[in-house]
Amino acid sequence: MIRRLASGFIARLSLSLLSLLPSALLCSTANAADYPGYRQADWIAPSFTFHTGETLNNLKLHYATAGDPANPAVLLLHGTYRSGADMVGKDFAGEMLGAGQALDASKYFLIMPDAIGVGKSSKPSDGLRAKFPQYNYADMVLAQYRLVTEGLGIKHLRLVMGNSMGGMQTWMWGEMYPTMMDGLVPMASQPIEMASRNWMMRRMLVESIKQDPAWNGGNYTTQPPSLRLANTMFGIATAGGTLAYQSLAPTRAQADKIVDDRLNAPVTADANDFIYQWGSSADFNAMPNLARIQVPVLAINSADDERNPPETGTMVAALKQLKNAELLLIPASAETRGHGTTSFSKFYARQVGAFLKTLPQR
Length: 362
Hints:
Elements: H1 10-19, H2 23-26, E1 39-49, E2 55-66, E3 73-77, H3 90-93, E4 109-113, H4 137-151, E5 159-163, H5 165-176, E6 184-187, H6 196-210, H7 225-238, H8 242-248, H9 252-264, H10 271-279, E7 297-302, H11 314-319, E8 325-330, H12 349-358
Parallel strand pairs: 3-4, 3-5, 5-6, 6-7, 7-8
Antiparallel strand pairs: 1-2, 2-4
GO molecular function, one term: hydrolase activity
Domain AB hydrolase-1: 72-331
Keywords: Acyltransferase, Amino-acid biosynthesis, Hydrolase, Methionine biosynthesis, Signal, Transferase
């Protein structure tokens, strides 16, 4: 079943969504230490073969878990250049992982890996730089699967849920391992081919760094200045939300302050890592194998998502190919953040909880 939220109902539905949330949750915070059994660890794949045929020995995947391994397992996947730590940040976890919430860590075993190329997992900046194997989303999903099955001994997942890049990988999980889970919740994503503005802006982000002489083919001694500028431009152009920016920066002075704050923020990224992270999406296309998905899908997007604009109709057309799929489209408002909206579980926590209750047990 596909549920579309008609544009004429946007204002009313925005209020309705927020009204579902207790006021105490709207200001809640989260701390990883608050969740039972929370721990971080590394799993090493003695040998890992990438889609290019390249092989890397001792590939490291860093991950965090919370809860009892005897409970139903849930895999939570982060967005591009982020890490598994996002999933225990207050914006997501504060209204999802606590007692009585949709993914209560006392009732589920939560698995939150750092993808290849980010966080504390193996990445170019560890030493190989631009000689690091070229990875794509299929490589990331394979590594996650090996971590879950070989590293943690988990044979089945109650749910796979991911945001942005993690959302695209959630579609792939349903295709590559169709009987491995009971349900899928891809967010801020579509199964369609990486194209249009979404790819054009990613391509420009990568090219901005590669064409900077300071990048020096990946052999720089200090981070290229283009990294800061390109990242700031990309962030403003493809995330944040039109109504939100109008509310936050209705004057030039306020707009300048946002730009200045972002330009003056410390650069913690590495240029080679950054190029690999964004370039890894180039060949993403879940459409050809969409029919392999066998489990119910709750897709969550926002109406103001700059990278996945709902007005194209591509998402609705794709979901019609699935037997059991529903689209929750979060209405745009000054409170949403465009592509970043789904980082805030207050907009959909109740719906995820309801979705979980409908899933059949395998």
